[in-house]
Amino acid sequence: MNSYTCSKCGFTTDKPLLRCPYCGSILHYSHGFEWSIDWSRQGIYRFHRMLPSIGFENSLGEGFTPLVESFRVSRDIGVKKLYFKNEGCNPTGSFRDRVAALLTSHAYISGYKKLVCATDGNLGASLSAYSSRLGLEVEAYVPRGCDWGKIVLMKSFGASIIEHGECLDDVYSLVYKKAVEENLYNATSEANALSIEALKTIALEIYYQLGGIPDHVFIPVGSGLTLYSIHHGFRELLENHVVDRIPCIHGVETCWNPRISRLMGYSVKECIMEAIIGLAYHYPPLEKEAVDVIRETNASIWVVGKKEVYRAGEELARREGLFVEPAAAVAYAGYRKAVEEGSIDPSDTVVVLLTGHGLKAFEGYGVKLKTRRRASVFPSETKLEILRVISSREPIHGYRIWRELGLDISMQAVYQHLKSLEKTGLITSRVIDNRRYYFLTEKGRMVLELLNHLSK
């Protein structure tokens, strides 16, 4: 029987719960550990002697992503051993494919027909792809403003998508309730202990690819799960006498909500910036565990702003050939900050985790990298583009309109156009959940239809 044991009070269950229902501590899968790689297997199951024995192995070839040694950046900043763990090379373009491989295998062998999850996009895309191979349904709950590239992926793989709330905190309890009431498999990463087992394989690969343990690893914090899981992987290597130390595991968060920094006692002010999809938590589910890992490994928490994040993304793309989503660029921005402040010895070996490919969330780079779909438009065409966006996505809020437009104009200009369109009666708006959403009026639909006809 599969067994999951509380790391604190010893509670045991056969369900893959992430947290103990009695003391709230993390549950871990009870299994043996033998350092070996079985090249006859696929994906992360090459580590099967260090993973749960589920009885079924669903894989799309995830894992064993490249550990890319820096060529230009390392020279620019005067460091010797900088590596990028490029998780964007996974089948659906993110590190969540590792999680999907284990969770869909467990759901399938357990007899479930439908999975439900709370996701910002990456997990939903991964679960949808892996579930499609097994004929399983996926119902994904996403906060408003989810990256369009991830929505497209989820829909392409056949997932049902429900928008709810403004960030992932808003959907966790909703998904948990639905899973219990309808007997669905809860595949939310932060609710399933198998996620830790899946993500720890990143640590196992880093050790194998480097031929040793790095001095530092930089990870975007998000929910805290990835940071905790990678530490768990290194700890298992240590406890089983494969290695003799654990690297300093640094967390990087944005100033949108520097929650971990505050929990560690630092005085950090919030800044005015939009949340970065993938890291948008008001209360990270594993925040306490993240703090413990950072302290235990004598590492630090780094806080970066919007300009630093997009500058990091630009640098990776133009100087290393690595196009990553903003949530991944956060880790590199934190590393750059650590180097600039003299906290990293130039001779130290450093691994920066790049969690996802940039094509899944390219809209955010529009202004910084000059990759908006159109460089400029005639002023008379801007309102037409806005009407088209509203028509295809209504109800839609102003920030989302700006992102969907793909025009090299400011958000302020978009709101001025919206005000003008509403004044002329082409659109209307109303406040939903403390946010203003826009709709086409009948007049607006008629005008849009006429303008589309004329433009042809």
How is the main sheet built? 6 strands, mixed
What distance lies between the first and last C-alpha atoms, to the nearest angstrom?
A: 65 Å
Task: Provide the β-strand percentage band.
Answer: 15-25%
Number of helices: 16
| Quaternary structure type | single chain
Shape: globular
Order of strands side by side in the largest beta sheet? 4-5-13-10-11-12
Helix content: 25-40%
Spans of at least 5 consecutive residues whose pLDDT stays below 50 are 367-379
Query: Structural class, judged by helices and strands?
Result: alpha/beta
Query: From the alpha-carbon coordinates, what is the Rg to the nearest angstrom?
Result: 23 Å
What do we call the CATH topology of the domain at 67-92 and 196-365? Rossmann fold
Mean pLDDT: 91
Overall strand count: 16
CATH architecture title of the domain at 67-92 and 196-365: 3-Layer(aba) Sandwich
Q: What's the short story on this structure?
A:
With 456 residues, this protein is an alpha/beta fold. Helix content is 39%, strand content 15%.
